[in-house]
Specification:
By secondary structure, the chain is an alpha+beta fold. The protein has helices at about 65-75, 95-100, 125-135, 165-180, 195-200, 220-235; strands at about 10, 20-25, 35-45, 50-55, 85-90, 140-145, 150-155, 155-160, 185, 205-210, 255-260, 265-270, 275-280, 285, 290-295, 305-310, 315-320, 325, 330-335. It has two domains: about 10-260, Aminopeptidase, CATH 3.40.630; about 265-335, OB fold (Dihydrolipoamide Acetyltransferase, E2P) (Beta Barrel), CATH 2.40.50. Helix 1 links the parallel strand 4 (about 50-55) and strand 5. The chain is globular and about 70 Å long. The protein binds zinc ion.
Amino acid sequence: MNYAKSRIWTELDFEKDGKQVGYLHLPHSVDRSGAGTIAIPCAVFRNGAGPSSLLMAGNHGDEYEGQVALTRLIRDLEADDIKGRIIVVPAINLPAAMAGTRISPIDDRNLNRCFPGNPNGTPTEQIAYYVEAVLAPMCESWLDLHSGGASMAFMPYAQIILSRDEALNKRALAALEAFGAPLSLIQGFSDEPNMSNSAAVRNNVIHFGTEAGGSGTVNPDGVKLAYDGTLRSLVHLGHLSPRNRRIPIPPAPKKVRWIEIASRDYYVYAPQAGLFEPMVKLGDTVKKGQLYGHVHFVDDPMRLPAEVKFKASGLVVCMRHPGRCERGDCLGHLATDIKR
Ligand SMILES: [Zn+2]
């Protein structure tokens, strides 16, 4: 595709061998700094010819596990360790990451609903555009590390979202297998055009990632999954040798549980505004019709709580974290096992 020029500039040279740690500069003129930029951290590792991969976290600013894993990777990795090129952006929507919020506090935009972005749009739209029009076209693979953020808690898992491109699906599935999460999800029904997975498909790039924890905290199991899985992926993608001397590659789990979210019926939404008290825990297996919890009306003590039931059977892989909910808020979702 031919893209218009992005306004984001960088001193990084994506073609140069070696390890460079610098910034992507997004022009941002504000009271404090009339000619200023938002400096988004970025590392480029290059060692000769070979594959190119984009490793990204902080697509949502309050999803911390991937941000921790990729900043650690930048410190741990040297260009001599690898083949080809690895571009690492640990906090791509930096204003959101610094604020600890899902969406950017500057323009109230959700980066993962902004693709393909706009070269002259708001800061978040410009970031989306830079990723889609500059970074993705340089790569064959894109790892996008997500988590539950402030409003959700996930059993940490890795995932792909299937597209209509069977060849890409096959390659993405191989990357997901190599990532080696004990719980791995193949999502088959989303083709939201404004999300990063669609941006990857438009660039003929495979896309895989995680939901590595959440609850507005840093889940250590999620950080470990993100870090170890990233290293195993780098081996699979041809960047790292499994016999390299410096970076030990963590062994993949012996058993992987493969899951999917088969339809909207596996999601549970709040029927009323109130205070949600769950009756199950993350990781529980539940049955269709089972009570998920009650929405309480604490300002009206004699009013009976509203019952919330599951519309399907499955494994509770995601639960809402805050107690208060509005009608329509997602209270969590289930997944079911698939044969592989
Ligand atoms: Zn996310």
